[in-house]
Write a structure and sequence with these properties.
Elements: E1 4-10, E2 16-22, E3 32-33, E4 45-51, E5 60-66
């Protein structure tokens, strides 16, 4: 609808996920944590709805999967 967009990916219950942001794909630009923290699920799909409004982040996103040390 232009006001939001959805990221959706196949997930594993044995992983935690982090949304990372990067304003450009140049080698001098690092990925940074989105501030959402660790995303966990018991489902096979995980999705996030993010704002797409003036002042919201514009750039590139990636999902980083990590194996948690313990639950």
């Amino acid at each position: 609808n232009g006001e939001s967009f959805q990221l959706e990916w196949t997930a594993r219950p044995t992983r935690d996920y982090f949304l990372e942001l990067r304003p450009a794909l140049s080698p001098n630009t690092a990925w940074s944590e989105s501030g959402l923290g660790s995303l966990m699920t018991k489902a096979l799909t995980l999705s996030l709805t993010l704002a797409n409004s003036p002042g919201s982040f514009q750039g590139f996103y990636r999902i980083r999967a990590v194996r948690p040390l313990a639950r």
